[in-house]
């Protein structure tokens, strides 16, 4: 290849190639800095991008599961609050029933105590019927007792049972406003109306408390999983901004030098003109 040629400038070609490479690297660096990602799309690193997309899907699924669990937590909190109020009211009803079982009270006093008992049973029914969250009530004699909840992004289910509180609690004491001395005495026994209603309520308070603890634990566990997933995703595709900043400055200097080198190379053919001067 001729070196002293005005048609072929090898030095300029080399300088231009180097300048183009620097421009490509500079564009890539600017992209990483502007997006914050080392791998912003499949062109940057196809394999890493594919892995990142799978992790993003897992993060979205786990986040969605935790949102659903938040709703279940609200439902269980409402149910627990209702059962606690039912339990407290049953304790009051038990105290009134003791008075109804007393054979020394006057008919007028019995009527007053029966009225109190009736109001307490109305409260119990109201607590049960009002225990709704997002349109769902797992105490108001639900037709389906089994409640399935998605607990994670993999679609794993946790199942807990609803409770027919109207049947197993309210119905036992619904006639309290008409209890005679004998009926009140029978209601106070362990297997009597009040004793049975209290036992059933306390059993369900224990069960629903366990359900709530499980949901709380699962929510916290999912949060830990999300932190780990996002940390791993960041390590895979995020840009090291300090490193890219230093690289940007180096490439800008290289670009300036490359531009100067190209300018010098382009001037080289001018020296050949002097060969034809007399």
Automatic annotation (TrEMBL):
Residues 192-276 form the Flagellin C-terminal domain. InterPro entries: Flagellin (IPR001492), Flagellin_C (IPR046358), Flagellin_N (IPR001029). The keyword DNA-binding does not apply. It is found in: Secreted; Bacterial flagellum. GO terms for molecular function: structural molecule activity. Its main location: secreted. PANTHER family: FLAGELLIN. Flagellin is the subunit protein which polymerizes to form the filaments of bacterial flagella. This is Flagellin.
């Amino acid at each position: 290849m001729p070196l002293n040629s005005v048609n072929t400038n090898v030095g300029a070609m080399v300088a231009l190639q180097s300048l183009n490479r620097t421009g490509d690297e500079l564009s890539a660096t600017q992209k990483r800095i502007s997006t914050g990602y080392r791998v912003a799309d499949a062109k940057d690193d196809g394999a890493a991008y594919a892995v990142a997309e799978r992790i993003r899907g897992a993060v979205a699924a786990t986040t969605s599961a935790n949102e659903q669990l938040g709703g279940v937590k609200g439902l269980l909190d409402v149910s627990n609050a209702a059962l606690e109020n039912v339990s407290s009211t049953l304790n009051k009803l038990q105290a009134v029933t003791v008075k109804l079982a007393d054979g020394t009270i006057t008919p007028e006093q019995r009527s007053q105590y029966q009225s109190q008992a009736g109001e307490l049973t109305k409260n119990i029914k109201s607590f049960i019927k009002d225990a709704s969250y997002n349109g769902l009530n797992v105490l108001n004699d639900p037709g389906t007792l089994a409640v399935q909840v998605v607990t994670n992004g993999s679609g794993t289910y946790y199942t807990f049972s609803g409770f027919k509180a109207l049947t197993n609690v309210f119905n036992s004491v619904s006639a309290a406003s008409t209890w005679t001395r004998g009926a009140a005495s029978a209601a106070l026994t362990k297997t009597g109306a009040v004793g049975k209603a209290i036992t059933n309520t306390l059993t369900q308070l224990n069960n629903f408390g366990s359900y709530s603890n499980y949901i709380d634990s699962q929510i916290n566990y999912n949060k830990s999983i999300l932190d780990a997933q996002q940390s791993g995703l960041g390590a895979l595709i995020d840009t090291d901004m300090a490193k890219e900043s230093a690289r940007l400055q180096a490439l800008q200097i290289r670009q300036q030098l490359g531009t100067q080198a190209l300018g010098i190379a382009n001037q080289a053919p001018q020296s050949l003109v002097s060969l034809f001067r007399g």
